[in-house]
Amino acid sequence: MDIVIVKNYIEMSKVAAGLVRDCIREQEEPVLGLATGGTPIGLYQLLVRQYRAGLLSFKHMRTFNLDEYIGLDPAHSKSYHRYMQEHLFSHIDIPRDQTFLPDGMASNLEKECRHYEKLLKKFGPPDLQILGIGENGHIGFNEPGSDFNGHTHVISLADSTREANARYFQSLEEVPTHAITMGIKSILHSKKIVLLASGERKAAAVRRLLEGTPDPTFPASALSQHNDVVLIADEKAFGN
Ligand code: F6R
């Protein structure tokens, strides 16, 4: 794993934006794996800025998001569909039908998981996958105990994840209990993985990640099985 330690959130976002830009420029039809949450917002802002400055086009890019809550309509203000529209897609020139997220409203969730995995096989794997990390070590919504060989599946969110994400909702009760997430195996298929971590809250998880021993109770440790992972952590997440 390559480790880049930067001063703060803004620097983390800049380094990540540089890697995404290189990937988009190098590939004719780039495929990007995307995350939501607080961590990549700065990265998306910088990509929008580069697009507006005429430095980058997303016309030929396809994107796959890691996860979506079950039971939230795409138009729901807290759905990841809506998040992606608000933070990235509606501001750039990516055609809507080149952006993929799991459908958390599907009547047959198992079928939806298989369908998403098929799309990943057809258009993927991502040339570059952006990841955040949960305080409990989750990547995507692969909670502790998740199978390292897992593909896209339905997951019951850990209490600690619902509590951590309650800050994005009005109350803890509003936070969905389940999600669809790409599995650890699906994530590991990506050609390159960029893991972002910012702030003190992530310091314990980053420390454990750097121990480097694969351990299913700490899902992010599966990244030690991939040969092209870049961790971009700011000083606080790195424990400085
Ligand atoms: C989001 C995702 C999650 C988040 C993680 C960190 O699509 O897959 O793994 O990356 O929960 O969330 P933030 O960035 O809000 O701390």
UniProtKB/TrEMBL annotation:
Catalytic activity: alpha-D-glucosamine 6-phosphate + H2O = beta-D-fructose 6-phosphate + NH4(+)
Assigned EC number: 3.5.99.6
Catalytic residues as annotated in Swiss-Prot or TrEMBL: 67 (proton acceptor), 136 (for ring-opening step), 138 (proton acceptor), 143 (for ring-opening step)
The keyword Transport appears for this protein: no
Membrane-spanning parts: none
Pfam families assigned: Glucosamine_iso
InterPro entries: Glc/Gal-6P_isomerase, Glucosamine6P_isomerase, NagB/RpiA_transferase-like
Limits of the Glucosamine/galactosamine-6-phosphate isomerase domain: 16-229
GO molecular function: glucosamine-6-phosphate deaminase activity
Cited HAMAP family: GlcN6P_deamin
UniProt function note: Catalyzes the reversible isomerization-deamination of glucosamine 6-phosphate (GlcN6P) to form fructose 6-phosphate (Fru6P) and ammonium ion.
Family: Belongs to the glucosamine/galactosamine-6-phosphate isomerase family. NagB subfamily.
Protein name: Glucosamine-6-phosphate deaminase
